[in-house]
């Protein structure tokens, strides 16, 4: 059922009280593990406030990047706030000791300030207020004490450079963030209800009309058009799905996006309702984007040729796909399916 996956999405958080353009909350009196304490934001200075935890894999992977950022920009104060350390139930609270040990072992590899937010006072004032429920999460605070950007620390290089250069467009960043939140709310709250109603009535026009309305308001409707294609194809609205796929052929959706379009048209649409020329265009773009080095993308391209009746071309490409899959360590059912397809293609054309 189409709605099963959509309904599985959790509801979005309430509108954030803290956002880009908001005044940065005051710094709580935390326990500083490394570096000088930061008790407030000085006018004319730029800060990076990152929330993390010792048990968080992505947080640990971000540490070298944060250290590199601090070394590259000594004029910026980078701090990691451990606001999510876990306490074992009915056990002594060893969070502070564990955090100290972690930071000490990192040594110079963790080249920025670190603080322990024992009661989550900062976590509540920053993360909760901003509607951020995942770590790591970084906030850039500008020279006027206002929040300039919120996001994953691995993605802050460009905004931080713009803030430092005085070229950051805070209003534009705020608008883009609001548009992204609107998209998330649509995906998580509205779309599942629309899809459920459409499945019951068989009328998908309200769904696609709403997606089109959202796309018309978006500065980049690509994601919405991808969504529209998926909804239409799964609802067996093939003519409209193909029309949407054609719009996406010139979009920047990468190998994965083009591959999905090609595979969907070639394998999930009825023979009479599909357009294999569109599928081939998408498959070729996927191969180009992946530089012909992704066995799964080549497997899709081979399948499209097979569906078009060109068994020889399908076998040629599938041979490369299987060889690449074996070389890259693909195994199990995936490799078995690819090998079975190759054998089928070598047997002749489908038509």
Structural account:
- Helix 6 packs antiparallel against helix 7, helix 7 (205-217) packs antiparallel against helix 8 (222-234) and helix 10 (254-268) runs parallel beside helix 12.
- This protein folds into two domains: 17-168, Glutaredoxin (3-Layer(aba) Sandwich); 208-346, Serine Threonine Protein Phosphatase 5, Tetratricopeptide repeat, CATH 1.25.40.
- It has a six-stranded mixed β-sheet, sandwiched between helices.
- The protein is elongated and about 70 Å long.
- The protein has 14 helices and six strands.
- It is 55% helix and 9% strand.
- The chain has 351 residues and is α/β, with parallel strands linked by helices.
Short structural description:
This protein has helices at 2-7, 57-72, 95-106, 121-128, 157-165, 170-201, 205-217, 222-234, 238-248, 254-268, 276-289, 295-307, 311-327, 332-346; strands spanning 31-34, 46-52, 76-82, 113-116, 137-141, 147-151. It is α/β, with parallel strands linked by helices and 351 residues long. It folds into two domains: 17-168, Glutaredoxin (3-Layer(aba) Sandwich); 208-346, Serine Threonine Protein Phosphatase 5, Tetratricopeptide repeat, CATH 1.25.40.10.
């Amino acid at each position: 059922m189409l709605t099963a996956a959509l309904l599985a999405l959790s509801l979005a958080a309430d509108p954030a009280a803290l956002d880009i353009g908001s005044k940065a909350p005051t710094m709580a009196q935390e326990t500083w593990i490394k570096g000088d304490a930061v008790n407030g934001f000085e006018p004319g200075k730029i800060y990076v406030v990152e929330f993390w935890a010792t048990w968080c894999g992505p947080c640990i992977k971000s540490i070298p990047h944060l250290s590199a950022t601090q070394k590259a920009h000594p004029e910026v104060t980078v701090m990691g706030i451990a606001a999510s350390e876990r306490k074992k139930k009915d056990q002594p609270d060893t969070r502070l000791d564990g955090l100290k040990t972690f930071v000490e072992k990192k040594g110079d590899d963790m080249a920025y300030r670190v603080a322990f937010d024992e009661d989550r006072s900062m976590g509540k004032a920053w993360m909760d207020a901003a509607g951020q429920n995942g770590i790591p999460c970084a906030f850039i605070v500008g020279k006027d004490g206002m929040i300039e950007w919120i996001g994953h620390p691995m993605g802050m290089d460009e905004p931080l450079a713009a803030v430092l250069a005085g070229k950051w467009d805070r209003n534009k960043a705020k608008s883009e963030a609001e548009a992204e939140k609107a998209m998330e709310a649509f995906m998580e709250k509205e779309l599942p209800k629309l899809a459920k109603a459409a499945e019951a009535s068989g009328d998908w026009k309200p769904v696609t009309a709403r997606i089109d309305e959202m796309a018309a308001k978006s500065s980049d409707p690509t994601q919405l058009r991808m969504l529209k294609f998926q909804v239409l194809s799964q609802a067996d609205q093939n003519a409209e799905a193909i029309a949407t796929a054609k719009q996406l052929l010139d979009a920047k959706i990468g190998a994965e996006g083009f591959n999905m379009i090609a595979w969907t048209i070639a394998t999930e649409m009825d023979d009479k309702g599909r357009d294999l020329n569109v599928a081939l265009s998408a498959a070729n773009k996927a191969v180009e984007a992946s530089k012909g080095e992704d066995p799964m993308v080549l497997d899709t391209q081979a399948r499209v040729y097979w569906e078009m009746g060109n068994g020889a071309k399908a076998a040629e490409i599938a041979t490369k796909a299987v060889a690449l899959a074996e070389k890259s360590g693909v195994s199990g059912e995936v490799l078995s399916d690819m090998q079975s397809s190759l054998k089928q293609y070598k047997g002749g054309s489908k038509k």
